[in-house]
Amino acid sequence: MPLPGVGRRDVVRGLGIGALMAIVAPAALRAALRPGDLARAPAGRFLTDTELTTLRAITGRLLPGPPEDPDPGAIEAGCAEAIDALLAAFSFDPPLIHAGGPFSDRAGARRDDMARFVPLDALAELGWRIRIEGSQGRPERSFAGEVVGLQQRYRDGLASLHGIAGAAPDQQDAMLRAPGAVDFVSLVLGDTLDVMYGPPEYGGNRGLVGWSATGWPGDVQPRGYTPQQVEELDPLTPPSGVLDAATARDALARYIPGTTLVDPPDEP
């Protein structure tokens, strides 16, 4: 549960993603592009129905929506489906890895160029296949050692948390905080944040709920900003200003179970 008066929207808007990354363990906020506008696609591109149900429950507990949080959460944003799209990226041609450009159709462009994914060159494909599918003992993928891919990590992690979908919220929190689940929960949290607040072409942020809840207008090219918008402060900026790190840490620890927080540096 959030601290009284401090919700996810306040933390993300007040602290900012940049500062958020400074206080959350790096493993929980890995910077990477995420694929696919799959709003019209069937669920379970890689995951089974049971696995996808489990993943929805996990993401929904990490970033809850109504009634626990007034803003839409991971379920409403389609975060589990977007993660499933990443795991199935190479079942599409071109793979759902890098959205195109230069513009979406959200700000005056005639078409959504970002929905046209970019073909990968040989090295990029190899790197992404190692990351997603793992090295699988293949010599061409094992030059830096064996790698367990995201597909296997998700499959194993979801199996270990089987049953969370039918558990009560306090039981779900306990399952997510269990020492054996920390690494997997951190992985899911990082991917959930990516797709919750990333461009919808990558599969999450459905209906732009991640952007609207935080007051961010999204991509505005080619229309751009007016001089007045550039010069004036954002009217949605919290009146209290930027949240201090301690308040943000407390709120994060309460509404994102299992978050591993980095200890602040000692004062000189």
Task: Summarize the entry for a quick read.
This protein is mainly α and 268 residues long.
Counting structural domains, the number is: 1
The shape is globular
In angstroms, what separates the terminal alpha carbons? 34 Å
Q: Average pLDDT value?
A: 82
Extended strand count = 0
Instruction: Summarize the main sheet.
Output: none
Return the string of H and E elements: HHHHHHHHHHHH
Structural category is mainly alpha
- Spans of at least 5 consecutive residues whose pLDDT stays below 50 are 17-42, 260-264
Strand portion: under 5%
Number of helices: 12
User: Portion of residues in helices?
Assistant: 40-55%
- State Rg: 19 Å
Account of the protein in words:
With 268 residues, the chain is mainly alpha-helical. The protein has one domain (8-215, 233-255). The chain is built from twelve helices and no strands. Helix 1 (8-15) packs across helix 2 (17-23), helix 3 (49-62) crosses helix 5 (79-87) and helix 5 (79-87) packs across helix 9 (182-197). The longest helix has 16 residues, at 182-197.
Topology summary:
Blueprint: H1 8-15, H2 17-23, H3 49-62, H4 74-77, H5 79-87, H6 122-133, H7 150-160, H8 169-177, H9 182-197, H10 209-214, H11 227-231, H12 245-255
